[in-house]
Design goal:
single chain, 305 residues, mainly alpha, two-stranded antiparallel sheet, 70% helix, 4% strand, disordered N terminus
Length: 305
């Protein structure tokens, strides 16, 4: 049930944000070099962008693969079931080492879903044809320039990364209130830490109360930093691959040869970046959750472990 809630939210949040920006979005020009910052709308399809289509394809593919892997469960797994169980168990053990045994039972469904979704969305964006097949115009050089691609990397769209960051912040608040209560949540941010006495105690109360406001600002900027970090890395990577194809412009034979060869090393680098960025997003969200939900005794036990 919980993964279904995440899937529904991932579907509607980019759609709503796209509806807001649709009136201001300008059509891409054939003269523009590189990937445009805003995802282009699919011609004749209202509100649906190329990046949204990619996220739906990836989500559908993951759901179908999971159903196939779990359709005929065996005691000794093999094939798709073996891969799926290995990935889930590895993620569970890894997250348990970060957030602890109790908290991982409550939050694993989200962290595992977000990692798998981001990872496969990043790699799907590197498939040949994504960003290069679609609608466009013939340029002055006589070549066809795609201005409205059919598919575009899902995480190269700020709407998508912002949607995931906002979903996490809502869940973070829910988990924080469940673990601390309203008064405990307030004390966790504004309350003094450590043992103090005398005048120093009252002085530190004022200090920690002021620090609490800085913490509130830090929390407010988390969805911005999470969304821009993932978007910036994926967006820059796709522009880098396209730029490498345009480095050699003449003669014609060199352009045809090096437009294929030059991007290859960067292509393998982007495969690594796709994995690292999915891991970074999951790690940051897990750490943010552990900091607010794990109490002092939990921290001591976890650090000892």
């Amino acid at each position: 049930m919980k993964p279904i809630i995440v899937a529904i939210a991932l579907f509607f949040l980019p759609l709503l944000s796209r509806a807001v920006e649709a009136t201001a979005a300008a059509p891409a020009s054939a003269e523009e070099a590189g990937l445009p910052a805003a995802a282009t709308q699919i011609p004749h399809v209202p509100l649906i962008t190329s990046s949204m289509l990619v996220t739906w394809i990836v989500a559908a593919g993951l759901i179908i693969f999971a159903r196939i892997a779990g359709s005929n469960m065996k005691e000794i797994p093999s094939g798709a079931q073996n891969f799926w169980e290995w990935m889930v168990e590895s993620l569970y053990d890894f997250l348990e080492s970060i957030v602890g045994k109790d908290l991982v039972r409550k939050t694993f469904w989200f962290f595992a879903t977000i990692f798998i979704f981001i990872f496969f969305t990043n790699w799907f964006g590197l498939i040949p044809g994504v960003g290069t097949v679609g609608w466009g115009v013939e340029g002055p050089d006589g070549l066809f320039h795609v201005t409205h691609p059919l598919l575009r990397g899902g995480n190269a769209d700020l709407n998508m990364t912002s949607a995931m960051a906002m979903i996490f912040m809502v869940l973070w608040l829910v988990w924080a209130l469940q673990s601390n209560g309203i008064w405990g949540f307030f004390l966790h941010i504004f309350g003094p830490k450590g043992e103090m006495s005398g005048m120093m105690k009252y002085f530190m109360i004022v200090v920690f109360f002021a620090v609490g406001f800085i913490e509130v600002l830090s929390i407010a900027f988390r969805p911005i930093s999470l969304s821009f970090r993932l978007f910036g890395n994926i967006f820059a990577g796709e522009n880098l691959l396209e730029a490498m194809q345009r480095v050699i412009t003449h003669p014609a034979w060199a352009k045809a040869l090096f437009s294929v060869l030059l991007p290859i090393p960067f292509y393998f680098m982007e495969l690594l970046v796709g994995l690292v960025q999915a891991l970074v997003f999951m790690l940051l969200t897990a750490v943010f959750t552990a900091v607010i939900c794990m109490h002092d005794d939990d921290h001591e036990k976890h650090a000892h472990h």
